[in-house]
Amino acid sequence: MAQVPVNVTVTGAAGQIGYALLFRIASGQLLGPDTPVKLRLLEIPPAVKAAEGTAMELDDCAFPLLKGIDIFDDARPAFEGANVGLLVGARPRTKGMERGDLLEANGGIFKPQGEAINAGAADDVRVLVVGNPANTNALIAQAHAPDIPAERFNAMMRLDHNRALSQLAKRLGVSVTDIKKLAVWGNHSATQYPDITHAEVSGAGAAAQVGDEAWVRDEFIPTVAKRGAAIIEARGASSAASAANAAIDHVHDWVRGTPEGDWTSAAFPSDGSYGVPEGLISSFPAVSRGGRWEIVQDLDIDAFSRERIDASVQELTEERDTVRKLGLI
Ligand code: NAD
Ligand code: LMR
User: Fold this and answer.
1) Which of the chain's ends, N or C, has fewer CB atoms near its CB within 10 Å?
2) Residue 284's Cα: distance from chain center in Å?
3) pTM, 2 dp
């Protein structure tokens, strides 16, 4: 029997991440080679024409799994029946804008989108927020979707996770596939904590193999945490293909499960584990089983890790307090 297509709504579809993302979704890399998809593209009116151009190119690829493309400039119809929502479109920080201004501007985007998801998305909807500040944007959307389980609102930390894997693999001269049990905690910002204390390389402790705490503290962590800024500096634009790749990885693992014997990093509402206040959308070491994330429990957190996790969680708490004061949640 032919499978019913999965509706995937992508916001900011005409942007640079959108351009790197849509072709991979349509080719089957998001949900697997047996799952047909329908794309629902949301853009602001001035960018609809560009989204139409991308849709023409998608048609021209003749992807066997792509069963339709619809383009919207209104969140309500765009999220109607959505099974997956990739919230990429966001207001970028411009000159002179403070973090509070950015949060407020994004509240104007993620509040109505949360409401639209609540009103019309499919019962099994899964939402991944990519647009920055991703964790707090996800919190805003989630707060406006009271009928949807909060755990279905995620923020993307997979790019940070992949960056950490890559940096550690380079340092140790191994393949990224040799590394297991790496984690990035906290916020998708410079305060994030890429943690190798539990990581294993070909079954042995990664930290011992690195054998240099100063490298971890002074090079590895800042390189991963500030990689987004380094890409902007080098390209003159923020990461796009690597961000799209991470979104594919995140949703793929969420829906289809993480491999046995390993974990990944994902931000979703805290259940209070590891002292992270309940409800904050913070990154944890996580596995996905049966379509749900589970936090990896009972890890020993050393004093250095505790301090770094607390600092990033503190930043998330402040962002939550700011959007609360602005009446956005
Ligand atoms: P971009 O400026 O190229 O594209 C953004 C698109 O969003 C534009 O086409 C714009 O018209 C659209 N848009 C704006 N408001 C919208 C709305 N209300 N509804 C629908 N669409 C809307 O930006 P980009 O490079 O694609 O990046 C998108 C976002 O992703 C940025 O916020 C960026 O900072 C963020 N990002 C996050 C990560 C991460 O790891 N979480 C990594 C890279 C980039
Ligand atoms: C990234 O991590 O590459 C982006 O979040 C950077 C940015 O500010 O857009």
Assistant:
1) N
2) 12
3) 0.98
Residue having the nearest C-alpha atom to atom 19 of ligand 1? 43
Tokens encoding 54: 């991308």
CB 42, CB 73: distance < 8 Å: yes
Q: Which of 144, 161, 188, 198 is catalytic?
A: 188
Element (H, E) at 205: strand 204-205
Q: Hey, which residues does 71 pair with through a beta bridge?
A: 41
d(CA 90, CA 120): 21
Q: 192 near 225, Cβ under 8 Å? A: yes
Q: Could you tell me which of 222, 292, 283, 282 has the C-alpha nearest to residue 258?
A: 292
Query: CB under 6 Å to ligand 1: residues?
Result: 11-12, 14-18, 42-44, 47, 88-90, 92, 109, 130-132, 134, 156, 159, 188, 238-240, 243
Closest residue CA from atom 1 of ligand 1 = 15
Catalytic residue status for 188: yes
Each residue's pLDDT tens digit, 279-317: 999 999 999 999 999 999 999 999 999 999 999 999 999
Dist CA 155 CA 283 (whole Å):
8
Reported ipTM: the value is 0.99
Please give the average per-residue pLDDT across 172-191, as a whole number.
Answer: 97
- Residue pair 296/199 in contact by the 8 Å Cβ criterion: no
DSSP, collapsed to helix, strand or coil, labels residue 57 as helix
